[in-house]
Structures are given as C-alpha cells and as structure tokens.
Amino acid sequence: MLWDPAVPEADHQDDDDDIPEGTGVDLRVAVRRLKARNTAPGPDGLPGKAWVLASEALGPRLEGLLSAFLERGQFPLRWKTGKLVLIRKPGRPADSPSAYRPVVLLDEVGKLFERVIANRLAEHLAGTGPDLAEHQFGFRKRRSTVDAIMRVRALTTGDAVARGGGCLGGVSRHRQRLQLHALELH
C-alpha cells in the first residue's frame, strides 16, 4: 500500500486561495523526468521505470491522489522515509568512515509529487509573482549552475578587466535572496 487513506486532515487555516487540482499535464511533466533517469528504487521497491510504464493506466487515480494531498496540505511521511545506502569511495580504506558516501533512496512516487509541487511553485512565481530575481539561477527553468558560473566569469573577465581595471564582487542577502553584485574598478 502506497498511502494511508485514513490520514488525518492537515492542521491549517483555510484561506481564500484555492489550490487547483492536479492535472494530467502536472503528472506527465513529472513522469517525463523519470524517463530520463535510471535510478535505484526507494523503500517501496518500485523503480522509476515502473512508474513510467504504469503512468498511462494509473494516471487518473494518481492525479486524484496528488490533488487530494495538495488540497489537504499534506506530504505523506512514508514518501519522505528513505533507505540509507553507503557507497564506497574508490581508493579509500574500507575501515574508514570517510571511505563511504551516504545516499538516501526515496520512493519515486514521492519524487513525482515533489516535482509537481516544484513546477507549480515556479509557475506561480513566474506568472503571479513575486517573480524571482533576474540573476537567480537556482529554482529557475532553463538556468543552471553552469549559467551562474558563466555569469561570474563574465563579470571577472569582462570589459572592465580588459581595460586594465578590475572587478569587485560581493554577495549580499536582500529580502531572503542572495544576490551577486559586481562593481567595475578603474
């Protein structure tokens, strides 16, 4: 059994904002990301490939389940319970704790739900706002760590440096966001 239908109601105040039901699009986007990965299964033993294959038949029921959890403001604890696996690092002595990298395997259905939530948050922030800062790279579609590194590189090797000046960089926190600042020095 993947969930307990007798989960008690979430203890939260209702507000005027309705949470839209889960849609086939939400689920298809999340399942599409599973197709691209070949990950080990979590405690339930179901690999991502099984969810991909079953998504056609289970789609409507899973959408209903995820919608119910969204409406109730719940994330099943079972989906956040992982299986700890220690992976040995090459070239390290087996009796050393630093010779192992801990990895926690989570149930794929929980990962699907996380993707649905993350996609909804990103869409809300981009559409309704407040939008994310232009130079924020995390939690943004089509932006990556590589993009952030390229921006820092451009700031430190750009026109100011080419003219014999320099670049002073700093990181600050403003309204719960970390921001990168650059100042040309002449």
TrEMBL record:
InterPro entries reported in the protein's UniProt record: DNA/RNA_pol_sf
GO biological process, one term: DNA biosynthetic process
Ranges where the record places region Disordered: 1-22
Cross-referenced PANTHER family: REVERSE TRANSCRIPTASES
Name assigned to this protein: Reverse transcriptase
